[in-house]
Amino acid sequence: MIKAGIIGATGYAGGELVRLLMGHKEAEVVWFGSRSYIDKRYSEVYQNMFQIVDAVCMDDNMEELASQVDVIFTATPQGLCASLINEEILNKVKIIDLSADFRIKDVNVYEEWYKLEHKSPQFIEEAVYGLCEINREDIRKARLIANPGCYPTCTTLSIYPLLKEGLIDPATIIVDAKSGTSGAGRGAKVDNLFCEVNENMKAYGVAVHRHTPEIEEQLGYAAGQEVRINFTPHLVPMNRGILITAYATLKKEVSYEEVKQVYDQYYKKERFVRVLDQEVCPQTKWVEGSNYVDVSFKIDNRTGRIIMMGAMDNLVKGAAGQAVQNMNLMFGLEETMGLELVPIFP
Amino acid sequence: MIKAGIIGATGYAGGELVRLLMGHKEAEVVWFGSRSYIDKRYSEVYQNMFQIVDAVCMDDNMEELASQVDVIFTATPQGLCASLINEEILNKVKIIDLSADFRIKDVNVYEEWYKLEHKSPQFIEEAVYGLCEINREDIRKARLIANPGCYPTCTTLSIYPLLKEGLIDPATIIVDAKSGTSGAGRGAKVDNLFCEVNENMKAYGVAVHRHTPEIEEQLGYAAGQEVRINFTPHLVPMNRGILITAYATLKKEVSYEEVKQVYDQYYKKERFVRVLDQEVCPQTKWVEGSNYVDVSFKIDNRTGRIIMMGAMDNLVKGAAGQAVQNMNLMFGLEETMGLELVPIFP
Amino acid sequence: MIKAGIIGATGYAGGELVRLLMGHKEAEVVWFGSRSYIDKRYSEVYQNMFQIVDAVCMDDNMEELASQVDVIFTATPQGLCASLINEEILNKVKIIDLSADFRIKDVNVYEEWYKLEHKSPQFIEEAVYGLCEINREDIRKARLIANPGCYPTCTTLSIYPLLKEGLIDPATIIVDAKSGTSGAGRGAKVDNLFCEVNENMKAYGVAVHRHTPEIEEQLGYAAGQEVRINFTPHLVPMNRGILITAYATLKKEVSYEEVKQVYDQYYKKERFVRVLDQEVCPQTKWVEGSNYVDVSFKIDNRTGRIIMMGAMDNLVKGAAGQAVQNMNLMFGLEETMGLELVPIFP
Amino acid sequence: MIKAGIIGATGYAGGELVRLLMGHKEAEVVWFGSRSYIDKRYSEVYQNMFQIVDAVCMDDNMEELASQVDVIFTATPQGLCASLINEEILNKVKIIDLSADFRIKDVNVYEEWYKLEHKSPQFIEEAVYGLCEINREDIRKARLIANPGCYPTCTTLSIYPLLKEGLIDPATIIVDAKSGTSGAGRGAKVDNLFCEVNENMKAYGVAVHRHTPEIEEQLGYAAGQEVRINFTPHLVPMNRGILITAYATLKKEVSYEEVKQVYDQYYKKERFVRVLDQEVCPQTKWVEGSNYVDVSFKIDNRTGRIIMMGAMDNLVKGAAGQAVQNMNLMFGLEETMGLELVPIFP
């Protein structure tokens, strides 16, 4: 039985980790870390866990934690994980960081976009970007996983095959993304109040959102060259779900079948990426509560562009689910263990 | 492995049954019945099932079905199940009817409230009302289960202990219920369009809702006398969830502890009924996607009344989850099998 | 042109007051008070007012304000208005208090339910309870108006005629109320975040909500005796709207026509109370954005009770709209001026 | 007093027209046409109109209608208006067609995208595209107005100035649009049920949406050359509101101030187009219920693109509000009459 500790267990991603690990037959949560709720019963913070979780919330004590568990999940604000880890800890315990601290290889890019000094740049090189479908083998051997951001997961998986196969022009990629409000976290802010979000929609972080360089780095690996994109996230009045609509110019004329064949080549064996049938567009509701990413595309011969679409539950494949998938790989378990979740509808 | 057939697999309750049975290790769905979608792939009707369910929808053929499966779930409009079953079928296969056909023992009451002629009154006596927490032993031996209605399940479980123990006056019970819109079904009606339901709330079926006699019958068993209640359901702009707020006059002055003790006595060993802590009110979101019913109460000394509250997912404990719980009991399986679902939040 | 000042202009009720007064041809807002946003442009707080309101937010300075305006609206937390007014101010300016400070005639009841010391009990007697349909004549002559609470407005108007005419037993009244989330205000609290409210429903303040004594006092005037009720509010995932469902035992058998006649007698000439047709239940969406209260009822002969229903926009008739209606009466204007708002649908 | 008739008064756009015209001091609705609800009281179809509208719904009889009214609004499916009008009618009455029949000058393009034969191509040339901010003078003199589509209105107004001034490359325009569900109409379809739309988001009509050629034609006038765009609409779980996010490559390096100056030059005097302050993104809620379009932009120097954003209420400026604005112009009234609606928030 894998003993898991969570730092940041009372955020929405932390709560989802708890939900998933409760259903995982080879792992158990033994440390519910939450600086804001120390000594409070976890099930008073998340009443859905009443009679399911009996533990109380603990402070962030990574040394102590490292001596008690096999894996630590950090579902915390940027900067915290980097400030807490060291060689000794990494020798004792595997770390899956759900924050952005180790996602970007160029520390200068990280510091510029996140306006933070990186406290452990020496581990950036070692950290493995935990996008399982692409870096599976490296993940198996890793001590430190940079669990991908929600938008980057959905975007990269939707675009990767076409870029890798050279079908689209990397200079033309535009990503228009839409997210449910759980992505904004559980902080008490006026902007996230029900009455402000409900019956409303807006773009935010236009041209400056911090997931931009993360997406560009991953797409750059696929393209074999530097990639610059436009990325515009939007806030949608729903709890869960990310939908991305990406546009790029095709390098040559291609048929539906040719493109479909490329997607299938990359994803036919992937359990968590579903390439939808022709003319079927992804819908966030069709993946809710599950670890699936649904992808689809449409060729527009009039403009020579292709529209690539992806839908995903931001808290599952976009955060906690992918973290569990990474854990499974790191511990030699079946990759899908605890993640065989049928999407809930309606 | 139990082979299950579903008649009405493309309604919301039918879809939820499929979701739950996909995660059940001792049962499998072998017949996806849907008269409206015959020969269409099930996963085209419910795209969340893409790459999970490969089957196509089948017509309603109960004879054929009875020869292929061990249990039939009928998630159909009132009247259909009663029109299809007969002794030969009941000798071959167990039936769990999610419609109201066999819930009410007095056929005249059924026919009056449902405006239907009952086609199989001879089986009403035999049918067991599948409220597992109350009729567990009878369910184990049953051939035909009347799976309780959503409102009756939540209402009965919230009120039953106090009525049974004689703490409240049966003549004073008022039940004000609120339901998410999935309870209205998947039929294409203007009243259930997004724009009509969203940002809106209304009562419906005031004083004439057909769950009234079902609740009255069950509460009557608890009270040991005939019970007449007011029951008012309301439509709420959310997908899932039922909340009931019930009022009754206390027969004598009681303390919080005394009432709590009564609830605990009935439910401490029940896996799916959670009696909440003092001052905690049930919220539908805390049980979403799970088989739990959360109950709670508040004594109002100023008026001599008690307010009893219950929250539940109408599609799980209120329909498909309870149906699976009944199946588990009928087949001698662990009662909780396939139902160990952690509520999904947010 | 009436000059109006608002203290608390950046709460939801304050914002609605601004919206309504912008469309009022005989009044203009000259003071946008908001302690939280002093010196900030009002249209940066409420971007809907961009290019409509140019003013900046002002501090709370009642003396200064009293010398500049004809009427002050206080849309502030309980206690503030009572702490600011005095005889000198009341001699200069009319005050419409949207808080609860002057709604309850018995100061002890106020202090007990609100857990506050009342700072101006000497003005309670003089203050007029601003429920226009009932206290119209007194309002015309008032210096100080206690603008009714949202729940009390909807509840009182729905029940008043039947109680006044002696058709129902005052000891049996139960009010089950449901409100959109704007009623919870614009404070940044976790409980009011989108993800906590959306797809959720709960009761709150069960048996202790502070609108209870206000409703009881008003119903008491109708009954001519002390009234004790059960009042249970619920939070609903929508922005605006209050729906109340009230239950009472009929004192004698009555027909639909008799009851309808009673409602019509009280409300036929009322512009803002609409008695719906038989079998039509009020829906909050049908009054959204308007000053209407829609009322309806259903007799249940089985139980001898009547179910009374009312729907209203909590920010309009339940707050800002009624405040403007009061202002109109106090200044001798047409009562409906600025309030001829057609409900917005969908 | 202008007498107005509406054909299609019971759709959402028709209902909004009624709401707006009820508040218009120089116009009155004398014919509520609705083939689906002939002889039914209008206020039974739209209960918000109870005690506001007394009329019953009438059949579509354009000859009769033309003899009774000064202006006819057709808020009907494509093809109907074109099939009903003729020279005689146009000589008697002004027509504002909210359908697409007369929006596109090239009848072949219309027939190809709409899969319909155009029944009155002889009037296409004469018809004026009723985008008031751009075609104001022609509208004043028109007999027949093609009221613009919702997406085209928001898109064109957001992009027009930059294209007209040659700042952006027309070949690079990508429009990612998001709409509330009222845009899908009031037809009873499973896809538009509450439970299917709520907590969900999807793209639809990808690369084939029929507003595409309409947008391209209007942008072509601005560019002075043929324009081909990608246009992708999405369905959002909210009642009202359109948000468009448009991308284009800048033809040269420009500063914020230069672009802002261009927008101001076009819109400073426009009452219904609000160019937002720097770094403020449009939100649909800030314009709800009003005739405003809020526009804003962001230059991304990293990619050389500009992101243009616009928000609007699809039923007001995107349909009924613009229709009234056109009527005002056609009849020589103040352009803003009946449209001075303050956006409703929250």
Detail the topology: elements first, then pairings.
The structure is a homotetramer of 346-residue chains.
Chain A: E1 2-7, H1 12-22, E2 27-33, H2 42-45, H3 62-68, E3 71-74, H4 80-84, H5 87-92, E4 94-97, H6 107-114, E5 128-129, H7 132-140, E6 144-146, H8 150-164, E7 174-179, H9 194-197, E8 202-203, H10 211-223, E9 230-235, E10 242-249, H11 256-267, E11 273-275, E12 293-300, E13 305-312, H12 316-330
Parallel strand pairs in A: 1-2, 1-3, 3-4, 4-6, 5-6, 7-9, 11-12
Antiparallel strand pairs in A: 7-10, 8-9, 10-13, 12-13
Helix pairs in contact in A: 1-12, 7-12, 8-10
Could you explain the architecture of this structure?
Four copies of one chain form a homotetramer. The first copy, chain A, has about 350 residues and is an alpha/beta fold. Helices cover about 30% and strands about 20% of the residues of chain A. Chain A is built from twelve helices and 13 strands. Chain A has helices at about 10-20, 40-45, 60-70, 80-85, 85-90, 105-115, 130-140, 150-165, 195, 210-225, 255-265, 315-330; strands at about 1-5, 25-35, 70-75, 95, 130, 145, 175-180, 200-205, 230-235, 240-250, 275, 295-300, 305-310. In chain A, the strands form two sheets. A seven-stranded mixed β-sheet of chain A has the order 8-9-7-10-13-12-11. In chain A, strands 2-1-3-4-6-5 form a six-stranded parallel β-sheet, with helices on both faces. In chain A, a hairpin with a 4-residue loop joins strand 12 and strand 13. In chain A, helix 7 runs parallel beside helix 12 (about 315-330) and helix 8 (about 150-165) packs parallel to helix 10 (about 210-225). The relative contact order of chain A is 0.15. Chains in contact: A-B, A-C, A-D, B-C, B-D, C-D. The interface of A and D includes residues 204, 229, 234 and 288 of A.
